[in-house]
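Input chain follows. Return structure tokens only.
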Amino acid sequence: MSRLLVVDTDVIRAAGKTDHPVSRASREILSAILKICHQVTYTESLREEWNEHQSRFSSRWRTAMAARQKPIKIGKEVPVALPRDDLSEKNRRVIEKDRHILQAALAADKIIVTLEKELRDALSSTQKTRKVMDSIKWVHPVTDGVECLENL
């Protein structure tokens, strides 16, 4: 079954040629997305981040996705209403920084592929924001691996 995923910029940037575990896991997860029938979506702001921070591997991956008619679709941004009162200033900043990732995921199949844990931690800080966090499937390339994508 094809899923519409959001891939965070940190994965796009980390997918380099080195044998470092993070780089290798990021390459493997992008390659798996290419082979499995999954597609990828992003918002305009996430696309701009990708363009600015992508590795050579990621650039080739994007080209290969298009060549296999697995277009990377620009998705709409779903408004994310989060309580302001209950959040610490630090958590509010973290969520605001990555709000576009949440918006893309909520407009798609609610799956985010990311190396980052800060956003999850910030969302888990209050009961109201935990509902948003729990509605999303979080895939970490190093700890979850390719098998996680195969089982979506």
